[in-house]
Write a structure and sequence with these properties.
Layout: E1 3-6, E2 11-14, E3 25-31, H1 40-49, E4 62-66, H2 75-83, E5 88-89, E6 92-93, E7 148-152, H3 161-165, E8 171-173, E9 180-182, H4 192-196, E10 202-205, E11 210-213, H5 218-221, H6 228-231, E12 238-243, H7 254-261, E13 266-267, E14 278-281, H8 289-296, H9 300-311, H10 316-323, E15 334-338, E16 341-345, E17 351-356, E18 367-368, E19 373-374
Parallel strand pairs: 3-14
Antiparallel strand pairs: 1-2, 3-12, 4-7, 5-6, 8-9, 10-11, 13-14, 15-16, 16-17, 18-19
The structure holds iron/sulfur cluster (SF4) (2 copies) and FE3-S4 cluster.
Residues 154-157, 160-162, 180, 197, 199, 201-202, 213, 274 line the site of one iron/sulfur cluster.
Length: 379
């Protein structure tokens, strides 16, 4: 197999095709600290793309509660168990990736979920890691009892296992933006892609008998508009844009800033070797760092400390870029924080959004003599 460089694991690895990066790579950052699992993203996508016959169980976007939630059932546990021990040496991964661990004659290591694995999309929702008892401290950070929400879409991976494994070459990665698409005219329903996408983000449609996956709302992206799941996000947790490789990172690109400059946003399961392009800001309240490192790699402690510092007022630039998330429908290509405001600019450099770092607060007297009333809410 050819060798390709995967910066998320700090080394070269085997991949069935030559490494050819797109001109630019669409990417997103999800802040798990702000997700409220309202599932608005899930429904925005479902009503746009997957409300037809045969699509009943298909969720291109889903939100699961960690540690117990998963859709399909135990996708992460099963993939990690299949892969075996995963060792990091500082920021370099020393174990095998899914491509290197592929059984003889196959392109990647994977498993095909059974139909019943898709029966409960919200399994484990709001369940804590431990049973709750009276004698624990809950108002201490980090918590010993915790859960957090993990919103998931296709990662439009740099080295997609779905693409690598399709015998019909029905899956392709667009050179202009790195979006991974499945050509349903070419697909014959072999489901190698379903088997080998470790994130289980390709779905087989039993009515049409071909597979389908997230299209990253490419018609919107082509017009400079964010995908639907992003722009409908109630918690404003999502920053959408384009990510560079570390050597080409630009400090004024919001995604690059979060991923490469502050290193506060981390890839999901980097040890699998796909160079996934949805990045996560890990939850700051979770006491089990090893669990977070298993999910997001070795940068977790740095990311949590950096995020905390910003929330405590020690990093206005980081605060500013996080406040720009979902503050406009437009894709923000550049940002700047200046005199108490964060500014976002489109591809041509036009300002498309401006938000204050602190909302102005007005305190009104409790008694209003003009109307002779007492106010309940004075701010
Ligand atoms: Fe393919 Fe899965 Fe990666 Fe999406 S997340 S590009 S479906 S391997
Ligand atoms: Fe659905 Fe578009 Fe979000 Fe993909 S990017 S999950 S297609 S709404
Ligand atoms: Fe290929 Fe997957 Fe279709 S393997 S043929 S794209 S079901």
């Amino acid at each position: 197999m050819p060798k390709v460089y995967n910066w998320q694991i700090g080394s070269e690895m085997d991949y069935p095709f030559e490494g050819r990066r797109p001109q630019r790579q669409a990417a997103a950052v999800f802040d798990t600290n702000k997700c409220i699992a309202c599932q608005t993203c899930t429904m925005a996508c479902k009503t746009t793309w997957t409300s037809g016959k045969g699509q009943e169980y298909i969720f291109w976007n889903n939100v699961e509660t960690k540690p117990w939630g998963s859709y399909p059932l135990a996708w992460d546990v099963r993939v990690l168990e299949l892969l075996g021990p995963q060792a990091w040496d500082a920021n370099v991964y020393r174990g095998k990736t899914l491509f290197e661990a592929a059984p003889s004659g196959e392109r990647a290591l994977g498993y095909l979920p059974e139909d019943l694995d898709y029966a409960y999309p919200n399994r484990g929702e709001d369940e804590t890691n431990l049973p709750l008892t009276q004698d624990r401290f809950y108002l201490r950070l980090p918590h010993d009892a915790w859960f957090f929400y993990l919103p998931r879409i296709c990662n439009h991976c740099t080295y997609p296992a779905c693409l690598a494994s399709c015998p019909r070459t029905a899956i392709y990665k667009r050179p202009e933006d790195g979006i991974v698409l499945l050509d349903q005219q070419r697909c014959r329903g072999y489901r190698e892609c379903v088997k080998n996408c470790p994130f289980k983000k390709v779905f087989y449609n039993h009515t049409t008998r071909v597979s389908e996956k997230c299209v990253l709302c490419f018609p919107a992206v082509e017009r400079g508009i964010q995908p639907r799941c992003m722009r409908n996000c109630i918690g404003k947790i999502r920053t959408f844009g384009f990510v560079s490789t570390p050597d080409r990172a630009r400090a004024d690109n919001p995604v690059d800033f979060l991923v490469h400059v502050r290193k506060v946003a981390l890839p999901l399961l980097p040890q699998l070797g796909l160079e996934a392009n949805v990045y996560y800001i890990p939850p700051v309240h979770v006491g089990n760092v090893r669990f977070l490192q298993m999910l997001f790699g070795p940068g977790v402690e740095h990311a949590v400390a950096t995020y905390r510092k910003a929330m405590e007022g020690g990093d206005e630039e980081l605060l500013g870029v996080l406040l720009l998330a979902v503050s406009t429908d437009r894709i923000v290509h550049r940002f700047r924080v200046h005199r108490g405001h964060a500014y976002g600019y489109d591809e041509r450099g036009k300002e498309v959004v401006r938000v204050p770092l602190r909302e102005p607060t007005m305190v009104r007297p409790a008694y209003d003599p003009q109307h002779r009333v007492y106010r309940y809410n004075v701010t």
